Amino acid sequence: MKKAFIYNSLFVSALLIGSSCGSNGSETTPSTTMQIEINTSVTTTTFVPETTSTTEAIDPLTVFLQEIEDCRRQEFISTAFETDISSIHNFFENSLICEIENEDPNLALSLHTSWLIADRQNTDLQLNENLQSSVLETASSFLEDVEIVSSDPEWTTALPASLFITSSLSFDSPRVISVKISFDAYYAGRIRTEHWVLSKSLDATTGVEITIDQLFSADKEWLPLLIELIETAVDENYPEATTGGWPLEDELDSFVLSADGISFDFLGVFFSSMGNVSVTIPWNNITDFLNPNGPVGEFATSEETFESFQEEVIACSNSIPSSDPIEHHAGWVHSFESYFLSCSNPYEWGGISFDAEWTEISGNLADTAINNAIQNLMTGEITQYLDWALETTELNKEDDLSFGTDSYAQWGTQIALDDPDLLSLVINHWSFFSGSANGNTSFFSLNFDPQSGQVIELEDLFIAGSDWVPILGQAAYTEINAQFDEAEIDSPELWWGWPSPTVFEDFALSNEGLIVLFDEYDIAPGVFGSLSGTIPWNNLVEIIDPNGPVGKFLIS
Fold first, then answer.
1. What homologous superfamily is domain 212-299 in, according to CATH?
2. What pTM was estimated for this model as a whole?
3. Which residue has the higher pLDDT, 504 or 298?
């Protein structure tokens, strides 16, 4: 019995021809003929009927060779291909599978191959020919090798020959399609299974294979650098491998591209390693050598000047902020929206980043005046921060100082009071400049009459002509100093700017009292940080104007 798993087998029947007598009365010798028919079923059994005639057995090698030929003629199986990387093209996966067994265990093989096909692209013909050529050429060569070896009369090895080929997509962009093809082969009679990788990068617009020199600028000496980076990567990832003496520059046309960099797979002989070697060179290691107009020009960057960096910083700060409504608080009269602007600009000599959040009011005729004041404050604060940060970066560059830390600032807003007559906002600020030992905190505040949009100044709260500065100073000192068990803040006479009213530049209003806000170093050593305290309204009764903005909070 002979079994064929995939392709045609021979069906043999013997046809016995009867005898007859000649005219001379002599008896003719009986003769036997055989008729061979081709049966196209996938799996059949070949047999010889029992007759009185002689039969001719079919050689297992003949059947095996016929099955190999049928394998070559098999139609491909095509299925939709899904990839785990970001892909802009559609692909199908074609596959060819042959499993051949035989009555003779020495005559068997396994062939599993797959390759990618691009779908509905103008360059499909050339592109797909390049995607599949290496796979089919290797499969054809494998089958030829099996035919030659199995036809050798001295062939006695029972292990079946096998070839497994898989293809994966590593990079897909409008300009480049990059695939990695893995081969695992056991050729009949060999000592061990062989594994190797073939990488192909193709121009998606023409379908033509990309050579490595197309990736780099022709006027730059990129080859020595690339070889040095490859050898360094091998030393780090394969410490036991040593240079095999092979000229690597002759082996660089098999590469695969990805968003991370360019990868190479080398046979172990190139580095005297027991296994194959695979390394990836990140784009940022070779970015200065890439051709900006080449297939991977998107990863090339020119040397950034301080002027171009400055333009990027300013452009980002002028971006339109995003906004979201703020969930209404039970004690609020008005509705509010939160605005947010974020920028991040890295730079070798000190990048500049910030996150700014502020609050604007809605639903009131005075909104425009109020919101303009808020926007003007935030614009001024961000501008000042950027001026100082850019100056810091420029000085770092001039002095060749790279601290590894960027300048950063953030602003956040709190609504201290919102009622029909008063709106009070507090903006918390923190900033750090590249190369500094630490950051600094500060406060900004805005207080409005929401009905008119008029800004409320601190002196508007007090009786005209009253000596409110020293009274407020003593009340603030008492309130804030009570927050500490042992340490004491500076007395008002030592405060920054005393006795000018500008000492109390930032303040906020609340139902409980007047909130005084002080930046670092204003009224105490910097270790205390920024300080604030709420002075009950009745503690200021001798200076509060009962007919002024906060007169309603006084209790008679």
1. Heat-shock cognate protein, ATPase (3.90.640.20)
2. 0.50
3. 504
